Amino acid sequence: MTKKSNKIASSLKIPKTILIIVKFLSVISSKILIQFVAKLFTTPLKHRIPKRELEMDRKSKQILVLIPNLNKNVMVYFLGQSPKKILLVHGWSGRGTQLFKFADELIKLGYSTISFDAPAHGKSSGKSTLMPEFVESILELDRQFGPFEAAIGHSLGGMSLLNSAKKGLKIKRLAIIGSGDIVKDIMDDFIKKLGLHQKMSDLLCYYFEKKSNQTMDSFSAYKAAKKIDIPVLVIHDKNDDEVPVKCAIHIHKYLKNGKLMLTQNLGHRKILGNNEVIEKVIDFIQN
Questions:
Q1: What is the mean pLDDT of each run of 10 residues along the chain (287 residues)?
Q2: Of 42, 90, 91, 286, which has fewest CB within 10 angstroms of its CB?
Q3: Would you say the pTM of this structure is higher than 0.70?
Q4: Rounded to whole angstroms, how far apart are CA atoms 90 and 130?
Q5: CA–CA dist 80, 15 (Å, integer)
Q6: Contact 68, 50 (CB under 8 A)
Q7: What SS3 class is residue 113?
Q8: Is residue 204 within 8 Å of residue 41, measured between CB atoms?
Q9: Could you tell me the keywords of this UniProt record (predicted)?
């Protein structure tokens, strides 16, 4: 393994302090353990905005928008004045400025962009969230600022857009990049990283389903893909260490009007800055 891939892999590791707490709780109480793990699973990391995104942060008009069904405010970013609007949706622990390179190119071509910090992300309110809150935020932005010509989503943002399209998001085309697929697989992977037995994944799933009165599998991307008729471009890197490429292949299989683009050695985040990927997405939106 190269130094570069070692660096990527290490970034996915759970901090030792968390692993110690998890091991301690696993001996003390399974109930407290599930509550703690659920908190971890729903709490995104907030990162300082990187220098490369500062220009979009400075140039965009920013408004806090209330999402009534959540009673949470999300920060919304507006760039450009064109009525041809594109919705950009970041992934877990991301920001509304994360897809800035797409925004830059779209503005040059006469589009305007709208993006947002999902609940508990960036400048938005809250400390914890789940995909249904991403979806509710997207649908509310569609009601207030849509319709959108198209939408672009990264990682969880891609999953959320697929589910939003299933629920009536009014877009003509959708591009998803590095999207996850089966929710239970995501939970299984999270539990594995914590060093817990896989039965804890079932308990975690039950915990969320009991609280939300919704099945976690109903939010799986491939299930949403079955219900969508619009053209969807699925892009994924073969060397994505966070979301396996099999997710893209599986989602594409169930799309009625899908295209698949697989890249090499771009990983999960570097792919967002790749010129070939950006050109492919913009060409897909325009044609």
A1: 36 77 91 94 91 96 97 97 97 97 97 98 94 97 97 98 97 98 95 92 93 90 97 98 96 98 97 97 95
A2: 286
A3: yes
A4: 13
A5: 41
A6: no
A7: strand
A8: yes
A9: Hydrolase, Membrane, Transmembrane, Transmembrane helix
No. of helices (H) and no. of strands (E), the chain: 12, 8
CA dihedral 133, 240, 57, 280 (to 10 degrees): -100
3-class secondary-structure state, position 63: strand
Residue type, 260: L
Q: Are 236 and 263 in contact (CB under 8 A)?
A: yes
Q: Which two tokens stand for residue 145?
A: 């600022």
Torsion, Cα of 140, 145, 149, 154 (10° steps): -50
Phi, psi of 236 (to 5 degrees): -155, 150
Length of the chain counted residue by residue: 287
- CATH number belonging to domain 48-182+220-286: 3.40.50.1820
Dihedral sign from CA coordinates of 208, 210, 213, 214: positive
Contacts of 261 (CB under 8 A, 6+ apart): 233, 234, 235, 236, 277, 280
- Which burial class, exposed, middle or buried, applies to 277 when counting CB atoms under 10 A from its CB (0-12, 13-18, 19+)? buried
**Domain boundaries defined on the chain:** 12-42+186-214, 48-182+220-286
Query: Which tokens in the block code for residue 151?
Result: 């939408």
Q: Taking CA 194 as the corner, what is the angle to CA 191 and CA 195, rounded to the nearest 5 degrees? A: 95
Beta partners for 234? 176, 260
